[in-house]
Predict the 3D structure of the following.
Amino acid sequence: MDLRDSKSRLILIVVALGAALVVAVASCSGGGGDDDTPQGADTSETASGDDGAGEPQDEETSEGNEDPDEPAQALAEVTGEESITLTVTTAEREAGGFLTIEGTLRNDGSEMWFASAWAGQEEELAENGFSMAGASLVVPEEGKRYLILRDTTGRCLCTGFGSGIEAGATVSWFAQFPEPEAGSTQVNFQVGNMPPATIEIR
C-alpha cells in the first residue's frame, strides 16, 4: 500500500510539474505578444510625431511670405518747382509735444537745384538758408497753422540742404512742429512753392 501510495504521489507530482511547464510556456508566449504590442505602439507614435513635425514647416512657409525689406508706403507725394518731388514717409507724434515729419526730396531736373526761399519769410529763420525752415502745417480740423520749431538762435529743428541738391539725387529730410491737438488726424504740409501734401498723423 505504501509503494502504491508513493507511485500515486509521484504520478501526481509529474502531472503537476507538466501542467506548470505548460502554464510557464504559455506565459512566455503571451509575454512575447505583449512585447510586440508596445513596439507597434511606438511606431504609431512616431508616425503621429512626423505629422506634428509637418506643422512647423507650414509656419515657416507662412513666415517666408513676409518681406521685411519692403519699403513703407509713402504718406503723400507732390511734384513742383523745377521737377522736384517731395515725399512724406512718416508723421509721428513724439514725447514732449512734438510732431516729427520725415521724407525725401528728389531732383528730377537736369541741373543742381537750390532754393533759398525755402527758409521762409521770417527774419529769425533767414540764416538757415536752403532748408525746411519755411515749412508749415495747416490743420483744417483746428483752423490753425503751425510753424517750424526753432531754438533760441533761430536755428530750425529741420534739415538743411547746404549748397543744393544735385540733378538725379534723392536726399532725406525731417522737420519738427508743435504737436497738433490730440483729436486732429489730418494735416497739410507745405514748403516753398510746392503744392500742399495732405498726410495722416497718429
In short: The chain has a mean pLDDT of 77. The CA atoms of residues 4 and 10 lie 10 Å apart. The chain is about 30% helix and 25% strand. Helices lie at 2-64.
